[in-house]
Specification:
Layout: H1 4-13, H2 18-24, H3 41-55, H4 60-67, H5 75-81, H6 86-95, E1 105-110, E2 116-122, H7 131-149, E3 157-159, H8 169-175, E4 179-180, E5 186-191, H9 192-195, H10 204-219, H11 227-238, H12 246-253, H13 257-266, H14 271-288, H15 294-300, H16 306-317, H17 321-330
Parallel strand pairs: 3-4
Antiparallel strand pairs: 1-2, 2-5, 3-5
Helix pairs in contact: 1-4, 2-3, 4-7, 5-6, 5-10, 11-14, 12-13
Length: 334
Amino acid sequence: MRALRPVVAGLRALGHDADAIVAAAGLDASALDDLEGRVPHGVAMRLWSCAVAVTGDDDLGLHVAEAAPIQAFDVHAYAMLSSPTLRDAFERAGRYQRLIHDTTGYALEAEPGGERAILRHALPGGRPVSRHPAELLAALWLRFGRLVTGDDWSPLEVRFAHRRPAGRHDHDRIFRAPVRFGAGENAMVIARAVLDARNARSDLGLLDVLDRYAAGLLAGRPRVNTVSERVRVHLDGELSGGAPSAEACARALGMSVRTLRRALRAEGTAFTELLEQARRERAARLLAGDRASIAEVAFLLGFSELSAFYRAFRRWTGMTPAQFRDAGRTGQAS
């Protein structure tokens, strides 16, 4: 519910009938008052689908991020705002992510050289969240990041896994940075100088109280080790010139193929979907550099024919591998 409350509050702030949208998604509005309440991920995504359908707003995620009142957020957000630096704020948000979602991956990772870092978000198995919540999250990263630093900074790059929407005026207005669509991940690239900027409003006394409160909440919530996460780890090690199979994966995980497929279906995914996601992410990372040729990238992803890789990559991103690499070199948004 900590994830849904700001969305509903943002819808109200935008003048929409949030209660009707919540009801259309099959949720009880009164349940939003229970911060410890949990709902399946699919229900949360249905709320987004209903909200977009009712409002007709094609940039709803961005607009909700701008409109949601600060008081609609919970302990993790206030802990961010009390952190001494932006880096510390993002790392703290990563530690408390399980208060928002049981198995979401959220991490700030330094790039080689240390001049910039990448803030990434993914669902179990490395799957990206769908467009509107992904854009909400990225816009909130920037909104809270600017509050922490007290500076109107912009990221070096914003990456979205979904395809480029029909219009992108508000993306350019909000991020004021290259925005790459079909990038295989939802992420934001941030300069080290911005991350290390001091928060003039940091309150270490309050932060200690918030940290202890959040730690207590996390202690009462067991970690969830999903099958899709285990499959993702397996694929990360197997994508190196071969074609991973569900049979080999099931053996590695100590279960039958039928059990594997049934478990993944219960988590809302499938082996083929996780394999395609892993290939898409690996392709984006390899093509972002110049060390591997396009033919080598295809081989490393397990494609037996270069033409099959081209077709798959165009389906993922709407571009050829060469176009994607060129866009990365020039720093232009796709």
